[in-house]
Amino acid sequence: MLRFCSLGSGSSGNSTLVEARSGTTTSRVLVDCGFTQRELKVRLTRAGLSTSDIDAIFVTHEHGDHVGCTVALAKRHRIPIWMSRGTWRAVGEPDLPGLLEFARDGDVITVGDLQLRPYTVPHDAQEPLQPCFSDGAFRLGVLTDAGSVTAHLVASLQACDALLLECNHDRDMLAASRYPASLKQRIGGRYGHLSNDTAAQILKACLHGGLRHVMAAHLSRENNRPELALEALATAAGADARDIRAAGPEWGFDWIELR
Ligand SMILES: [Zn+2]
Ligand SMILES: [Zn+2]
Fold first, then answer.
1. Tally of helices (H runs) and strands (E runs) in the chain
2. How many CA atoms lie within 13 A of 32 on its CB side?
3. How far is the CA of 63 from the centre of ligand 2 (A)?
4. 3-class DSSP state of 134
5. DSSP secondary-structure letter at 169?
């Protein structure tokens, strides 16, 4: 059984938990943690877990809403931590003896019953990677913090049973926002963040009969509304917007099980 939940998502902090169970063993990976350790503890409690339940941490890139407390958390609780060499450099080459493993595009990382395959995405960070998970039976694809669609990204997200997709902004809302032009350009650019439209385009390219769950993530408070993101994804999937969920900043979403 593969299950996952979002502890929160947005520019104020992102964190996703993925768990695989087989027989008597349980394996859990925390993807990013843009919160303080204290805040993480509160959110983990809500998910029915504690820090001692985390078997490994995967950091997608160095931006504060993702790297957050991950390095301190790994050190304090002796949790193995995976990140790209570029991300490690960008966060100041922290000393993590016996804990740090470098992740590379296409490698398979095994954490107990969970396998994760990182893939490269176009984002304005040193060496950003996003993960695709499998427990051997089910697949979960995660994609936040990408500015555009690439063939590699679409290929990496094929055959997923569940997809967590960034829907950062609505193009019109971003264009009309009070953000300075340079910031608008950064967010809407090739290495920025996914608009609802682009996320819908990716979803369309990854659609197949086995896709059961689609979640919208990393929504901007200023430049998006959950109903716009859900509508865009639902239209792309030919589904009802009520079948798609949006992860919020205070709480993402409760456990979703694939079995
Ligand atoms: Zn982010
Ligand atoms: Zn980012």
1. 9, 14
2. 31
3. 5
4. strand
5. B
Give ∠ CA 174-224-120 in degrees, rounded to 5: 80
Ligand (nearest to CA of 12): 1
108-139, pLDDT tens digit by residue?
A: 999 999 999 999 999 999 999 999 999 999 99
* pLDDT tens digits for range 208-252: 999 999 999 999 999 999 999 999 999 999 988 778 999 999 999
Ligand closest to Cα of 121 equals 2
Are the beta carbons of 38 and 76 closer than 8 angstroms?
no
**Structure tokens belonging to residue 96:** 């993590």
pTM over 0.85: yes
Q: Are 131 and 118 in contact (CB under 8 A)?
A: yes
Give φ, ψ of 30 to 5 degrees: -95, 120
How far CA 197 is from CA of 46, 167, 203, in Å, comes to 32, 8, 10
* Helices 37-46 and 70-77, axial angle in degrees (round to 10): 80
Which residue has tokens 């490994």? Answer: 56
User: What pLDDT score was predicted for residue 66?
Assistant: 98
Cβ neighbours around 189 below 10 Å, total = 13
The average confidence (pLDDT) of the chain is 97
> Which ligand is nearest to the Cα of residue 192, counting in written order?
2
Asked if pLDDT for residue 44 goes beyond 90, the answer is: yes
Residues 6+ apart with CB under 8 A from 25: 112, 113
Q: Which residue has the tokens 């960034």?
A: 166
pLDDT digits (tens, 9 = 90+) for 146-168: 999 999 999 999 999 999 999 99
Q: Counting ligands in written order, which one lies closest to the CA of residue 14?
A: 1
Distance 259 CA to ligand 1 centre (A): 29
